[in-house]
Amino acid sequence: MATIEQLGYSAFFIALTCIFAIVARRLNERMSKDGLVKDLIFEAIAAAELCGCCFELIIVADNFGVATYAVFLFTLTIWWGRNWGSATACPYTYMEQIVEGEVSFKEAALKIWAQLMGGCCIFRYVQLYWWLELAETHEGRAFEDCKADLQVNLYLGAFIEGFATLCCRLASKVISEKDARFGAFIDSFIGTSLVVAAFNYSGGYFNPVLATALKWGCAGNSALEHIIVYWIGSCVGAVLSVPLFKTATFRNMFLTEKSKSE
């Protein structure tokens, strides 16, 4: 049976990962010239931090339950929002910007590539910690064959990932425009709640890079199925949030006060 001490080893690893990311960001800030290369490194660092922490959150969820997992995720989401700066560690934010005409396709592609490199390469660092088996919850996990999280029909899974991503992006846009006092907490709560709601159906990733880093090649899904659910599903949901957010109906429903004041 998992103990608080074993949970402490997971908390330590997550904290250590965040500290390494802080150091890496500061080194990049000091040593890199402003420009695209610097931004690419920031994206790689953010994705590595995200995926490194979420690998350990799998251990937390498996051994301490979804509620404990949710507390960690809620806290981390707020932390990342305050420390990543302009980095997002998420491909569809740049797809949205392409639709808005804010970035070129080339720049977006390079940033997504940097995210994938950071997210996928971090597993060796995670694997080393698990290999040490400091806690019983890590025993056998370093070289264990992974299993896909999709527990429903392929297209239902894609719909769940897409719809939840759409809700997350719309909520973030509303909170950002309203400049809510506790916006970061509200945004984190909404995102965490949606992740928990989808957890036992699609895994609740809502981020293609995260899903790929954690579950690409796992037993239970083919490469095409993974792409349909976690890339096409999430990205379509995010891109749809751009025109939907601008519709009069949506703005009247969720931005009424601002509309009247204008």
TrEMBL record:
Record bears the keyword Transmembrane helix: yes
GO CC term, one of those recorded: membrane
Single GO MF annotation: channel activity
Cellular location(s): Membrane
Stretches that traverse the bilayer: 6-28, 66-85, 184-207, 227-245
PANTHER family per the UniProt record, alphabetical: AQUAPORIN
Family indicated by similarity: Belongs to the MIP/aquaporin (TC 1.A.8) family. AQP11/AQP12 subfamily.
Name of the protein described by the UniProt record: Aquaporin
